[in-house]
Amino acid sequence: MSLFYFFVQGIPECMGMVALTLAYARVPLRWGFIFIAAVLLAVVNYLIRSLPFTFGFHIPVMMFINYFLIIKFTKSTLSRTILAVFSGLATVAFVEFLVSNTSFALINRDPQDIIADERLWAIIGIVQAAILNMIALFVARVMKPLEGAWRNELPGIQQKMGE
Questions:
Q1: Which segment of 56-60, 76-80, 96-100, 154-158 scores lowest on mean pLDDT?
Q2: Is 132 in contact with 38 (CB distance < 8 Å)?
């Protein structure tokens, strides 16, 4: 996949993953932080996928970075953060499975042909990312964020959502 399409799909998808993890950890969603974390995750993801590692190696690395960012910048406990990261990954996997299979059925083409079409695959990824972000907003509304969950205020990138 070209660099352009990778980031067009990857950044929103990583935003969904970070937002979901924060929502599951009951941390208020700050979209500036989420965007910066997503760019970092997408760049690391691209670098790992460019190297000759086993496919799927990027997943534990992404989970660790997500875990580290939440522990570093929030007051979330270790156990809550671990549960949030795994819950976020499970949600991403479930949504990816549903969106991919639904897309394959609706488009009625061979899955390998769809994956090979960078533009179409990026569009499917953007739909998936939008669903992930909507789920994160829903989870944040249902699982009320805790007051004072952020370790410190992050000047210039803080934006409260649903508080």
A1: 154-158
A2: no
Per-residue 3-state assignment (H helix, E strand, C coil) for 6-75:
HHHHHHHHHHHHHHHHHHHCCCCEEHHHHHHHHHHHHHHHHHHHHCCCCCCCHHHHHHHHHHHHHHHHEC
Selection from 7, 145, 13, 136 nearest residue 76 by Cα:
145
- CA 154 to CA 9: how far, in whole Å? 26
Domain coordinates in residue numbering, the chain: 3-145
User: pLDDT tens across 12-50, in order?
Assistant: 999 999 999 999 999 999 999 999 999 999 999 888 878
Q: Is 161 helix (H, G, I), strand (E, B) or coil?
A: strand
